[in-house]
Amino acid sequence: MGTPHNAAKLGDIAKTVLMPGDPLRAQFIAENYLEDAVCFNTVRNMFGYTGTYKGKRISVMGSGMGMPSMGLYSYELFHEYDVDNIMRIGTAGSISEEANVRDIIMGIGACTDSNYAKQFHLPGTYAPTADYTLLKTAVEEAEKLGIKPVVGNIVSTDSFYHAQEDVNLRWASMGILAIEMESAALYMNAAKAGKRALSIMTISDHILKEIILPPEERQTGFRQMMEVALNTAVAITE
Ligand code: HPA
Question: What are 194-238's pLDDT values in tens digits?
């Protein structure tokens, strides 16, 4: 059938989907890591592929940038395509001494300045969190590769260019590791759907120390993160 944003038919997408922000990264993963990858979506160039990795069926699809984009694609994957697990694999800007450029971080929780939670009409403030099984498995898989991930709270912002100069310091004062733009929507969609989500990110820049990784180094960090995510997908697949 498909949706307004996804041409895939039910059954075309695996139970576990890795979602980089950039659809060209989805294509890169399909071409370099998956066997027998088949493209299931090209609508708006938000490429999606299904193939196998270490014998397990896995999909990869771009999420786009920001919570509205991650929100709609992950909603459709959970509700229209019977997807059970989504792992975001992206980049984040550190605002913490604990997370340095090149580090791999995992978001236990995702604070947000967005109104995404309003739709659920809750009588308080919702705390979007990662799925514990995915998180635990991802930490174990990272350690098997000799990587020590930094695990903690992150913030998903609607404003890459924020009007308030001290905004990052305020989040940092609450122990937030890093800033990105998608995880809170993903975690809320997973919770509402009764499914599982996790965000794994490489630190591409340190906002407070004003360090930005050169593009080729971003690529190396990205490869490590992809392997952690792919091995986690394998570990949780029957
Ligand atoms: N802000 C928001 N999202 C990001 C950043 C940032 O500084 N770096 C990578 N993703």
Answer: 999 999 999 999 999 999 988 888 777 789 999 999 999 999 998
Annotated binding-site ranges for a purine D-ribonucleoside: 5, 180-182, 204-205
For the chain, the average pLDDT equals: 96
pLDDT tens for 13-33 read 999 999 999 999 999 999 999
Q: Is the pTM of this model over 0.70?
A: yes
d(CA 68, CA 66): 6
3-class DSSP state of 192? helix
In angstroms, the CA 24 to CA 223 distance is 14
| Lookup: tokens for 10 | 């039910």
Specify the residue with its C-alpha closest to ligand 1, atom 7. Answer: 93
- With the most atoms of ligand 1 within 8 angstroms of its CB, the residue from 181, 201, 208, 225 to mutate is 181
Q: pLDDT exceeding 90 applies to what percent of the chain?
A: 95
- Ligand 1 proximal residues by C-beta, below 6 Å: 91-93, 157, 160, 179-181, 204-205, 207
Residue 153 C-alpha to ligand 1 middle, in angstroms? 15
Beta partners for residue 152, in sequence order = 107
Active site residue 205: yes
Tell me, in angstroms, the distance from the centre of ligand 1 to residue 82's CA.
30
Contact indicator for 13, 40 with CB cutoff of 8 Å: yes
Residue 94's contacts (CB-CB under 8 Å, 6 or more residues apart) are: 100, 101, 103, 105, 177, 178, 203, 205, 206, 207, 208, 209
